[in-house]
Amino acid sequence: MAVWVILAPIQIGGQIAYVSINGASMLPMMRTGDLALVREERDYNVGDVVTYKNADLGMVIHRIVRLDGDKFVLKGDNNNFLDSYHPRESEVVGKLWLHLPTLGGTLSKLRTPVALATMAGGVVLMAFFPLNRNRRKSERQKDASRPAALNLCTEGGQSLLSLLVVVGLASLFLAYLSFGRNLTRSTTTNAAYAQSGSFTYTAKAGTGVYDGNRVTVGQPVFRRLANAVDYTFAYRFDSELPSQVSGTYKVVAEVGDNRGWKRTLDLAPAARFEGGAFSTAATLDIREVQRAINNLEKKSGFERDLYTVAVAPQVSAEGTLAGRPVVTTFAPRLAFQLDDLTLQPIREGLAETDPYKPVQSGLLRLVGTEPNTVSLLWLDAPVSMVRWISLLGMLLALGGAAVLAALTLRMRSGDETARIEAQWGAMLVTVMGVSQHTRKVEVARFEDLVRMARAQGVGVLHDATDDGRRYYVQTDAAMYCYTVSEAAPMDDERTVAATGTQQ
Fold first, then answer.
1. Of 61, 285, 287, 306, whose CB neighbour count within 10 A is largest?
2. Helix, strand and coil percent figures for the chain, each rounded to 5
């Protein structure tokens, strides 16, 4: 039963897929005719040999060489090219568990009609054999008055030995599964975090131009009314996992045009922050920006009507996330268009993003360890537990077999009366003497008497005599006897007259 639970195919609710190798893409590891046993795992990593379903090729077993988002990129060990199809995790059947050379060809032969018919006939014969055996056992115990002692000469002892053999084999298989694995396994999880910022800006405005006397976020700055713009930027590092982050930051202005020219101006000097958050202020002097532009136009001879100005904080953060080191950067941009009259905010990047509240998400790959498990259908048992179960099972099987052997040796080393009692006690019926007027026939072995009793469907009568113990089977023709003297050695093959004598 344990072997069935472990090796049951996926098609009937099990956890193992059987893949016959056909091709040379995985040489020298696997070749045509080999059999691969694969089973589903919780996750798959680069370097794992896995099987996936390809709509054109069927089942393909190749090695993962890299990850492409939520897809796997695979390649045969003997191929000089990557698989054209990149399966998702849901399309992966399982990871290579066992590799059995040449067995795939053997299984293919067993699928032929002749082989299937032969196996079906064997199953039928095996089904009838226990029924016939149980019928004979019932007949033998028809007149039983007490159970036989437990040893290898009795059916009870033989049945117990068969059970111990099954327990021992199952324990060996569990030992093979558990001791072939490490007690722990590596785990990989993604720790999510986000860096967010918040821009604001303001500038002077003439009376009556705006609703107030200051420029607010989203409004253009008229250069005749203001020569400087005040910016603030607030930063925050967030994660659902425990984190301790610190780092440095500074704020610059990037002046450029549509031909690739760029000039960087420092707005706020480098500073350090602690605790994963800070807020800073900087002032953009439009006149300084114009001087940089004038210098470019004077020396290059090119004049342009439009330039861009971007306020760009530059954040470098480092620390720990979930107890693991994390290093990251954050450099959002708040962009403006500069002409002779205005400094006008413009949108960069995706239309759905808010330029005043930039967010940058990140993932930290956490590699750790956890107790390794052995999967048995729906049950995941720790490797350590399976090891103990296998050891206890083997001890039980070996201990039980040793006890049976000791009982058997003890029985065989005793007198013949004890042996008969131990082996055939279920057939014995104790009587107080038998009729002396019946023709008696001595038999050579007690086993001959047993066969007669079975043929007649009766038990074996026995009583004590002056010379020892005598056993009888009554038939219509005669009384068949077997005598064991008090001092007789145990000898199943001793010669006793087997011809009939009239008493």
1. 61
2. 30, 40, 35
Question: How many structural domains does the chain have?
Answer: 4
Is 278 in a helix, a strand, or coil? strand
On whether residue 120 sits in a domain, the answer given is no
- One domain for residues 390 and 435: no
> Same domain, yes or no, for 93 and 241?
no
Shared domain check, 158 and 207: no
Cα dihedral sign for 451, 453, 459, 462?
A: negative
* Domain hosting residue 16, numbered range: 2-110
Q: Which residues of 152-187 are buried (b: 16+ CB within 10 A; e: fewer)?
A: bbbeebeebbeebeebbebbebbbebbeeeeeeeee
pTM: 0.47
Model confidence at 331, in pLDDT bands (50, 70, 90)? Answer: very high
Confidence of residue 133 (pLDDT cuts 50, 70, 90): very low
List the CATH number of the domain containing 255: 2.60.40
Count Cβ neighbours within 10 Å for each residue of 473-484 and write b for 16 or more, e otherwise. bbeeeebbbbbb
